[in-house]
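User: Predict the structure for this protein chain, please.
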Amino acid sequence: ARQFDQIPPFPPDTPLVPLPKVSLPELQGKGKVEARRLFEACREWGFFLLDLKNSHEGEILLQDAEKMFLLTAETFALDQSILDIYAYKPPHDLTGYKQKGKLKTDDGKTDCMELYTINQDDMLGNCP
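Assistant: Here is the predicted structure, written as structure tokens:
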């Protein structure tokens, strides 16, 4: 995936959590050892890394993620006047575009996060 290749590695002095890795193809093949590993990871950590390699469905998911990265770049490259048409309206509606500096952080400073939120029903085509 092109976009994933552009992400720099963590700095060497950054502490990393040793999350368990679970293989999607092993789970798809009903591997009992992998199913146990998944159960233990959820029980102990509440998290796990899902290895999508060597799985048709995993490759499709990675391709879809790549498309989302590209769509995100295209969206944020739009003129500000266009993005403002779709601005979110808290607290009534948190979907849509949020410009940097619209929220305050815990220490009272403005945030530096730009985002565009799409709700699940819109993503799945459940809205008219």
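The CA atoms of residues 41 and 47 lie 6 Å apart.
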